[in-house]
Amino acid sequence: MDNNNFDDSKSTRTSSSMSGETTVYSSMDGTPAPSLYSYHSSDGTAMLRDVAGRVLNAKNDLYLLPADEGEHSRLDKQHLVNLLAMGRLYIAEHEVQEALAPTTERTKMVLDLGTGGGNWAIGMALEFPHSQVIGVDLAPSTLRPPPPNCRFEFDDFTLGLEHYYSTFDVVHSRSVANGVKDFEWFINEAAKCVRPGGVLLITEGNLEMQNENKVGIEPAFGEGGPGQSWLARACFEAYNSMKLRGSAVDSGTLLERWFRACPEVEDVKYTEIYVPIGPWERGRTPEETQKKELIGTLMRQNMKEFVRSCRPMLTTSGYPPTLLDRFVRETDRELDELKLHMYVKWHHACGRRIAAPEQSFSDYENDNDVDMS
Ligand SMILES: C[S@@+](CC[C@H](N)C(=O)[O-])C[C@H]1O[C@@H](n2cnc3c(N)ncnc32)[C@H](O)[C@@H]1O
């Protein structure tokens, strides 16, 4: 949100929320609290603007992908792809389930930064009904209301997350690097929102399309040539446009290194998953092949729609309409013909928030300025 809408002090800064018609809840404990910027679900358009025929968030010039129904429907497909490819909503099954095991002491808390249409947040709220899930985004979701233990707040998380420090048992973000300038800072900031012993999960996709040998595919220029791809070209131009604007869109490649360097997390796990674009990949059994075909079909739809979603951003960057039309046309043809077999590479990292250090006697002495003489 706009900086001016907030009291930036740690204890009172709240985000606007769509959890109810008139009430905004404080971030810390779920109790009703006055907000400096609240709105009714019907006036969410205040956060949106039209660019090149699509609806975008109105508050952040770095993130120029749409925030409309079409985009949230695309993200739902991408969510299903990840869900099927990973087998669940998160890597580190044991750590996440342990962190969210019910306890009589308090409600377990989950935070999803850059929640988009809220698909992951809603999935977690349904899987862990005793927990409270908060999804934060620049713009409201247009598709569905959240279950009672899930709510959305609207904020630009790059303005700082002090109001959330040490609050959540699990903190997650996926595909948000396009809205972040300094992703290493973001990892550290997100980690500080996790309670000691809790889990941080970050996933980023890679805009360099990969061939069957898992090597970057050459983008098509001019008339295109054998082995060149128009989808790879459209993604390459999207990447250039995001990078020129200052986005850390390529952060997936450094995710593992930054997690290991983060002083707030330990027990780091990292994995890469290659997702086929289109139903071309075969498994070892008919069931496995069917699953790969389903994943590939959803990913093909997602990528066709992604090229269309880039139009407002690429228009703003000065790309001519004829070239953008060509990206759409040639990508559709390429992904229908499936002569080129391509993958999208996903980077997944997780870590556990370091336990709070035991206070030593000398810390106590310093903190309380005790005179021992
Ligand atoms: C590609 S979408 C991914 C949405 C969701 N995480 C998913 O995987 O379906 C990225 C989302 O991050 C949000 N976002 C990007 N930068 C942000 C920021 N600085 N603060 C809050 N939300 C941000 C965007 O508004 C968008 O909804």
Structure description:
α4 links the parallel β7 and β8. α1 (69-86) runs antiparallel to α7 (286-309), α5 packs across α9 (321-337) and α7 (286-309) packs antiparallel against α9 (321-337). This protein is α/β, with parallel strands linked by helices and 373 residues long. The model is unreliable at 1-42 and 367-373 (pLDDT under 50). The protein has ten helices and ten strands. An eight-stranded mixed sheet has the order 1-6-5-4-7-8-10-9, with helices on both faces. Strands 2-3 form a two-stranded antiparallel sheet. The structure holds S-adenosylmethionine.
Helix/strand class: alpha/beta
Rough outline:
globular
Sheet with the most strands: spatial strand order:
1-6-5-4-7-8-10-9
Number of domains: 1
CATH topology grouping: Rossmann fold
- Give the end-to-end Cα distance, rounded to a whole number of Å: 52 Å
Q: What name goes with the CATH superfamily?
A: Vaccinia Virus protein VP39
Can you name the CATH architecture? 3-Layer(aba) Sandwich
Radius of gyration: 22 Å
CATH class type: Alpha Beta
- The SSE string, one letter per element, is EEEHHEHEEEHEHHEHHHEH
Hetero groups in this structure are:
S-adenosylmethionine
Strand count: 10
The low-pLDDT segments are 1-42, 367-373
Give the integer mean of the pLDDT values.
Answer: 87
User: Describe the biggest sheet?
Assistant: 8 strands, mixed
The number of helical runs is 10
Measured as a percent range, the helix fraction is: 25-40%
